[in-house]
Model the fold of this input.
Amino acid sequence: MVGAGPAGIAAAVSAAECGRSVALLDENSAPGGQIWRGFEVGQHVDHKKGKGSRLPQEWFVRLRLSSVEVIRNCRVFGGGTPDQLLTEVDGQAAEFYGRSIVLATGARERFLPFPGWTLPNVLGAGGLQALVQGCLPIAGKRVVVAGSGPLLLAVAAHLTAQKAKVSMIMEQAATQRVTTFGAALALHPGKLAHAILYRWQTRGIPYRTSAWPLRVNGEEKLESVTYLHAGRQHTIACDYLACGFHLVPNNELASLLGCEIAADTGAVRIDDSQRTTVPHVYCAGETAGIGGLELALIEGQIAGFAAAGFPDRTQSLKAEHARQRRFAVRLEAAFAIRPEIRSIAEAETIVCRCEDVRRKQLEGHTSWRAAKLLTRCGMGACQGRICGAACRFLFNWNPDSQRLPVQPVSIAALMGLSKNPMQAGTIPPAEV
Amino acid sequence: MHEIVLVEIDGKPVAVQAGSTVASALLAAGIPARRSISGEARAPLCGMGVCYECRVEINGIPQKRGCMVLCHASMKVRTQ
Done:
């Protein structure tokens, strides 16, 4: 199992409860993923009192009581033979072998470029929340939360609870879409309760729809943000801009392993049992399509049971799975990024932050690959994880197929592998 | 009161709250993690190990993502 967020934990626990031997690999120092970050060490701040905080607790207890081996600080950078994952653990090479592989690599924020977005103190919405969970002092700081998606409200509530002065929440989606989405939450009482609680916690903070940042002003760091709302420009001074345009799946490892990816959403294609187009590889959670925590937990369980060879046990989850999938469809429709936002990046705006490639250098290229070869866009340390989603939105370019390694890895770790991974594909697959 | 840890950033002592990530410490101190290839100051963006904007040298090992590493007493951080 790759990724110890909710989907990965649910998959690992489910497969282990079927009697399988499970390794749960995670890049972080503790399991929990992004949404349950720091839960294990008690840093997790959950404002959804009562039922909300029982959910992670239940899963962490099940994980602790299970036979699952959690491998921390483990960066999966590729596969060799079909049953193999190549990783770096604390700087050392480590190879894992499994009859089945479950990918639960989660999602990241979609970042879209606009003038000044590279200035210090402009972060993702989830990005700023993660930094605050990493003890960034935020009390008294003026924060503007912007972008798109339900995460904005959750982040604003979290920051407010930490005594930040959130001065505005800017949602790019139109009022009508947000209202329709809000009304549909009545079908999901748990989610509705969270939304109401978050809005109560952020009462008094303007929530502007059809609003988005146009540029960030400042020399060496952000000083203010100029935004568009209802056709008019305004400028607001702040210490931080927390801006993310909803989420995109982390599909790089799946793609490297040969799993088919949906071109429009970037989601890994799966069947009813979470099986990808590669028969022994399963995928669950946001990587298989953005749908939130509840869907991730159900998909994780289905993937875990199916990967363990007990597909019958997934039957009882099917109805709730279908219900949560319908929520995912509503989510995608409500927070689709409006085309006007393509024009906020100006000719001089940097699109690829690693290689400092500007929009004007990218215009006119016909594909992601052509742009990469001629401008180095997407060829830096993040390997196109940030600018790839931006270029997909700006220019409709689809990413190339992935190559080993999908994460930067030290030469020492590569040297420590039992076989040269570049030749690994030529080794006959093991009995799986 | 929070427990305080002293780390060294570019040779200067910086007091941070125990439990801080290196990325949070840099951002709180207003120190850019790196200069981009065209010379811009850069600081953490994604907070979750994806964007590599907070990469710094930590105890002599270059290219470490500051958001993935917790501060420890007498840790030596060099911006890149």
Observations:
- Chain B has one domain: 4-78.
- Chain B has a mean pLDDT of 96.
